[in-house]
Design goal:
Elements (H helix, E strand, L loop, with lengths): L13 E5 L2 H18 L4 E4 L6 H12 L9 E4 L1 E3 L10 H8 L11 E2 L8 H14 L5 E4 L21 E4 L2 H6 L13 E4 L2 H5 L3 E6 L5 H9 L17 E6 L10 E2 L5
Parallel strand pairs: 1-10, 1-11, 2-3, 2-6, 3-5, 6-9, 9-10
Antiparallel strand pairs: 4-8, 7-8
The structure holds 2-amino-2-deoxy-6-O-phosphono-alpha-D-glucopyranose.
């Protein structure tokens, strides 16, 4: 049984704004914990990026305190760099082990990322897409947002009905992600990512954005004309999507509800 979506079916996503990034992250952690406690075999869609670090810290604290368990859950990550093996220090597989998996109690084999070193990458993309479907689809997808509005590694120009595939990263994204690499020239040029269509098929979606660097992307995603120039604007068509922001990330929009209120 899938969990019931909490968001009212209003035809539009919800938006919650918190005074501080830590509060926004804790709220997202609480949504995930509530979902796991209600439906232990939830299929989670997970994201990398620094924005997610406090969410995963919150979840690991809750797990240590006995307030949640991942033992029956399954996860699918959004994306992985092409050419980096799971053991590479800058791979998303390594980031996920470091941020969440090593301290969690996910059952062996239940956490999935696309394999960025497979010889036939198109086949790997199709396999990953099929694996998500075979798991019954994603119940709760966690998303960050790139400064150019990308979700997963769906850069501007990505079709809203795209599925898991190999993509070329923009220079701006490579530069933004250089922190994990010795130099910006070492950031891979390609990645394998769930498509926007894959993401939109999730039962519920929570996008977390914090910091002023995300304000323009969040404003376009929330209230700009939806279209491929801002991949996250595709979420406007998902009635069970929720944007969770801090004040800095929400600075470009006015019609928000304070996070202290009901969601
Ligand atoms: C990467 C990931 C995205 C993530 C984005 C933002 O590009 N593929 O899923 O949302 O980074 O990362 P950060 O949270 O570090 O700003």
């Amino acid at each position: 049984m899938r969990p019931e979506p909490e968001a009212a079916i209003t035809g539009r996503p919800g938006l919650l704004v918190f005074d501080h990034a830590a509060e926004a992250a804790a709220h997202v952690g609480q949504i995930i914990a509530d979902t796991l406690n209600r439906t232990p075999h939830t299929v989670l869609g997970l994201a990398t990026g620094m924005t997610m670090l406090p969410v995963y810290e919150w979840l690991l604290t809750a797990k240590r305190d006995g307030r949640l368990s991942f033992s029956q859950a399954t996860s699918f990550n959004l994306d992985e760099y092409i050419g980096l093996g799971a053991a590479h220090r800058a791979s998303f597989a390594t980031a996920m082990r470091r941020m969440l998996f090593d301290g969690s109690d996910f059952a062996p084999g239940r956490t999935h990322l696309p394999a960025g070193t497979t010889i036939d990458l198109d086949k790997e993309a199709a396999r990953y897409e099929a694996a998500i479907r075979a798991a019954g689809g994603i119940d709760l997808q966690l998303l960050g947002i790139g400064r150019n509005g990308h979700i997963g590694f769906n850069e501007p120009g990505s079709a809203f009905d795209s599925t898991t595939r190999v993509v070329t990263l923009t220079e701006a994204t490579r530069l933004a992600n250089r922190g994990d690499f010795p130099g910006s020239q070492d950031v891979p040029r390609q990645a394998i990512t769930m498509g926007i269509g894959t993401i939109l098929r999730s039962w519920r979606i929570v996008l977390l954005a914090t910091g002023s660097a995300k304000a323009a992307a969040v404003a376009h995603a929330w209230s700009g004309v939806p279209g491929p120039s801002c991949p996250a604007s595709a979420l406007q068509g998902h009635a069970a999507a929720l944007f969770v922001c801090d004040r800095d990330a929400a600075a470009g929009i006015s019609d928000w509800q304070h996070g202290g209120g009901s969601r």
